[in-house]
Amino acid sequence: MYASQKLSLPTLGCGTWAWGNRLLWGYDESMDEQLQAVFDLCVSRGVTLFDTGDSYGTGRLNGRSELLLGRFAKEYLGAGKENICIATKLAAYPWRLTRQSMVSACKSSAKRLGRNVDLVQMHWSTANYAPWQEGALLDGLADLYEQGLVKGVGLSNYGPKRLRWAYKKFSDRGVPISTLQVQYSLLSTYPVTQLGLKEVCDELGIKLIAYSPLALGLLTGKYSQKGSFPKGIRGLLFRQLLPGIQPLLSCLRAIARSRNKTMSQVAINWCICKGTIPIPGAKTVEQAKENLGALGWQLDANEIAELERAAMNTDKKMVQNIFQTK
Fold first, then answer.
1. Which among 9, 189, 256, 307 could disulfide-bond with 193, CB atoms 3.0 to 4.6 Å apart, if both were Cys?
2. What is the torsion angle, in degrees rounded to the nearest 10, for the CA atoms of residue 225, residue 230, residue 233 and residue 235?
3. What is the pTM of this model?
4. Cα Rg of the chain, angstroms
5. Locate the NADP-dependent oxidoreductase domain: which residues (predicted)?
6. What is the average pLDDT score of the chain?
7. Is 227 exposed, middle or buried (0-12, 13-18, 19+ CB in 10 A)?
8. Percent of the chain with pLDDT over 90
9. Would you say 134 and 126 are in contact if contact means Cβ atoms under 8 Å apart?
C-alpha cells in the first residue's frame, strides 16, 4: 500500500510557484528547458522535495507547475530518482465542499503529474472566513491517506490553535500530519516565533516547511532602493519594504562576506538552523546552484543572534498571508 511507504524529506526543498505563473513571476513556455535543468540539478544534489499546488499557473496555464513536475520526474534518470517527493497543495476553493471534492482534486493532480502525489497538503485553512467548510475538506485528505493514494498529509498556513484542532481530527482516524508549511524568513517570523508554532510542531511530531525563505527575493541583496525593481506587484512591495529593512540587509551582507557565501545562502541557512525545511524557488540553473550553496555548512549561534537582532530592528516586515490562522 502506497501510504505505508515512508515519506522521505530532505534538508532543503524547491518551491515551484513560479513554474507557470505569468502574473507574479513572468513565466513563459520558453523557460521549460531551463526548469528541467533546475529539476535535474536539484535531484542530483539531494534536493528531492518539490512543492507545488493545484492552483499554480496563471489563467489557461492553471496546473502547469504540476504538469511540468510530472514530466521532469518521468524524464529524470540520474541518482536520487527514487527519492523524488512531489508535494502538492489542494486549494480550498469555495466550490469544494465535500470530502469527495478533495479526493477528486488529488486524483486530477495525480493525472497531471502522471504519478501519485507523495504529500498532499491543504493549501490554506478556511477558519478565517468559512470555518464550516474545513472539516469535510480535511476528511477528504484523510480519505486519500487511508485509501493509500498518498504517502503523507500536510497542512499550510495554519497557526498553533487551528493546527491542534486539525491534529485531533486526524488522530481520531489514525492519520498522522507529516508537515506544516508557513511563510517563514528573517522578515517573516510571526507564526513561528510570536505564535510559538515550532514548539507545537515539535511536540506533535510535525516537520515545519518554510516557504518564501527569501521573502520573494528581498533577502537576496539583488535589489536596492536606487536600482531596478521587479515588475508588477513584487515591485510595489519592494518599494515599500526596502527602505525599512536596510539594517537586516547590511547584516546579511557582512555575514555572507565573512563566510564567502551569498546573502541568499545565509538567509536560507538561517531557516535550516531554525529546524525547518526551506523551499526557495528557482527559475534558472544559477538560482538553483545558489540555493544549493546553503547546504553543507551552518551559521554559528553568534551569527544567528546577530541576524535576529538586525531583523528585530527593521521598520518593515513581510506581508502575512491573509489565510494564515492563529
1. 189
2. 10
3. 0.95
4. 19
5. 12-309
6. 93
7. exposed
8. 78
9. yes
| Cβ-proximal residues to 115 (8 Å cutoff; 6+ apart), any chain | 70, 73, 74, 86
Q: Can 56 be counted among the known catalytic residues?
A: yes
CATH T-level fold of 2-217+271-297? TIM Barrel (3.20.20)
24/16 Cα distance (integer angstroms)? 13
- Sheet of 49-53: strands edge to edge? 13-15, 49-53, 85-90, 119-122, 152-156, 177-183, 207-211, 277-278
Residue with cell 534538508: 11
Candidates 27, 56, 184, 211; catalytic one: 56
Amino acid found at 156: S
If one counts every other C-beta atom within 10 angstroms of the C-beta of residue 258, the result is 10
Q: Residue 2 has what pLDDT?
A: 45
Residue 155 neighbours by CB under 8 Å, 6+ apart:
121, 122, 125, 163, 166, 177, 179, 180, 181
Instruction: For the chain, give every domain's residue range.
Output: 2-217+271-297
C-alpha cell at 205: 511530531
Q: How does 3-12 read in b/e, with b if 16+ C-beta sit within 10 Å?
A: beeebebbeb
Helix locations, 242-322, DSSP H: 246-259, 263-273, 285-292, 301-312
The answer to whether residue 323 scores a pLDDT higher than 90 is no
